[in-house]
Amino acid sequence: MSIIITVSNQKGGVGKTTTSAAICAGFADRGAKVLGIDLDPQGNLGFCMGLEGVNGSTILDALQGKLKLQQVVRRLGKVDILPSDISLSATGLEKLEPGKRETALKEALSPMMDYYDYIVIDTPPALNLLTINAYVVSDFLIIPMTTDILSLVGLSQLRETIDSVKRSLNSNLKVLGILLNKFEKGTALSRDVEEMTEDLAKQISTKVFKTKIRQGVAIAEAPAHGEDIFTYNKYSPAVKDYSRFIDEIAEEIEENVRVSEVVG
């Protein structure tokens, strides 16, 4: 059974797509079979993984039932990708009856749940039906944010959405942690934001990951070269941070799965 991880924050510019792509490539490098799902109409996840153009079917075709998911998957070197484009801005999901509009992705994914070790979902910078669909099908949620005060704004609304999904649609959803991106160690602002984030993490029954991601030119350059960050420059300090982050979440997930099996 696939382990499904969603990367989400309704604020833009916090590193959702970079983090999603890093998780995809990082697990693939560790021998896992990985599917990346782009639920952002900007369509950047595929680009970050080396996908050249989307001209053709996208995840929207599967969500609307026009094609089976297997017909939409694009196979790249390391991972498989379900691409998106701007057409995802108008999904038509709101026209479905309540209960089905929130579970369209879960239904589309069901035939492939035993095929992949990990499925990683990149979400749009909004708390909309696409985001809800991702939460409904996921085991774990990772929330990236940058070390600025504005990144803290809106986390309370995110908490309300998570709680609502857990109450009515997916009681097993777990917030694995909050990832601090573009972290400048030693600055007063970073220390203040980290402290406030720790407090917010407790409110949603999670934690701030030990690993913090530093600024890094390689992170921005890799997509332009059609390569994931680990292939492009594994020696970059920021890329090394992401490698440690993958190790950290792999250990966390393994522990959570083990506990669930014991409880179950």
Biggest β-sheet: strands ordered side by side in the sheet: 3-4-2-5-1-6-7
Category by helix and strand content? alpha/beta
Q: What's the total count of β strands?
A: 7
Distance between the termini: 15 Å
Query: How many structural domains does the protein architecture include?
Result: 1
Radius of gyration: 17 Å
The amount of helix comes to 40-55%
Tertiary shape? globular
Count every helix, treating DSSP H or I runs of 4 or more residues as helices.
12
Major pleated sheet:
7 strands, mixed
- The CATH homology group name: P-loop containing nucleotide triphosphate hydrolases
Approximately how much beta-strand content do the residues carry? 5-15%
CATH fold assignment: Rossmann fold
SSE layout and pairings?
Layout (H helix, E strand, L loop, with lengths): L2 E5 L8 H14 L4 E5 L5 H5 L10 H5 L5 H4 L1 E2 L4 E3 L21 H6 L8 E5 L6 H9 L2 E7 L2 H4 L2 H14 L5 E8 L6 H16 L13 H5 L7 H4 L4 H27 L1
Parallel strand pairs: 1-5, 1-6, 2-4, 2-5, 6-7
Antiparallel strand pairs: 3-4
Search tags:
264 residues; alpha/beta; Rossmann fold; seven-stranded mixed β-sheet; 7 strands; 43% helix; Sporulation initiation inhibitor protein Soj; P-loop_NTPase; DNA_Partitioning_ATPase; AAA_dom
